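Standup notes
- DV: blocked on the single-chain target, sequence here:
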Amino acid sequence: MTPTRRTLLATAATLVAGLALAPAASAAETKITFYYPVAVGGPVTKIIDGMVADFEKDHPQIKVEAVYSGSYQDTIAKILTAAKGGNAPNTAIALSTDMFTLIDEDAVIPFDAAAGADAQAWFSSFYPAFMANSQTGGKTWGIPFQRSTIVLYWNKAAFTEAGLDPEKAPANWAEMRDFAAKLTKRDANGNVVRWGVEIPSSGFPYWLFQGLTTPNGVELMNQAGNKITFDAPEVVEALQYWVDLAAKDKVHPAGIVEWGTTPKDFLEGKTAMMWQTTGNLTNVRKNASFPFGVAMLPAKQRRGSPTGGGNFYLFKGSSPEQQKAVVEFAKWMTTPERAAQWSIATGYVAVSPAAFETPAMKAYLADFPQAAVARDQLTVSVAELSTHDNQRVAKALNDNLQAALTLAKSPAQAMKDAQAEAERILKDYR
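- DV (later): unblocked, structure below
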């Protein structure tokens, strides 16, 4: 055989080998679908898009399809519908309180096996308060990502105008009521032009209510998610305090206070204090035309807040390769550097102590120390209300909270009714 002939055959063999390998190389790319709870458009979408793009640059063998799935409520509904149709996403950010629902619906698998040998080291890197809504039955079902607590925001200019120390937030329930009385402002006709305080009671009433029950020394459910304590005396007392702020003390709007309009009221000077998620921190910082403070929630028997926000979940139907890709994605998104980046951009609490040791977070806190309040409050925070059949249990509590706040029921009757309805729902899970 001539040298030219041998060369041509060798070249052809190389080309054939290359073509044979091409499908394998293509197949090596793992695609995962990622549901994220926000409407399409807006700054958060751009942040997520940027983080996904950066992840794909670092992991060229993994392709992430981000699906913006609406509100948390929209997202869980879409997840469950997709799961029942055999088309669940591979991963999603859903409320930490959806853990029992997703387990009961047989929609998720724990991260323990997929995370491999370093699973426990990874899980223990997060704040324990966030893991309280992420683990049950000795397994880890959720990975903290966009997590929060409730904090009190106050308008320092309004405090100065009312003769209060602008650097001192109310430390306890009595002080909050007294401060709110001085801060409530009326015009010549007696109409309120600025409320002393607003605690939202739409959207997530039970969550804001835990900002009262936790400091009063009571938790609303057990760790197994099958028992609740809605009618405990401390719970009734907490609701009475909330009702009295409007009905008796006249320092809080009557009826239902909308979750979405409370930050707007604060920024427009219509309320001097508000209770809101730390997830609103960046919004308030960017848009407040006055100096403001951020504080832990006022104490009664103790300090404390429920945690809140969303976790990564891993869904059934994912191949072993997709499970590994989800773990890689969740690990990358929650590294100290990324957690710090996300916290600074959004106001959510960075999910690990290591994130607060990064240069970026240290510089941020030096410039904006209010952001450290949520971190410090984690030492006294408890799990957000989460039970089996959580949507129905939370609705029973929410409906009765609103009945009390609109004076349709007494606090004692409202909590008695909430307890009875929740007991009926949870009896089959004991």
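- Follow-up: The longest helix spans residues 3-27.
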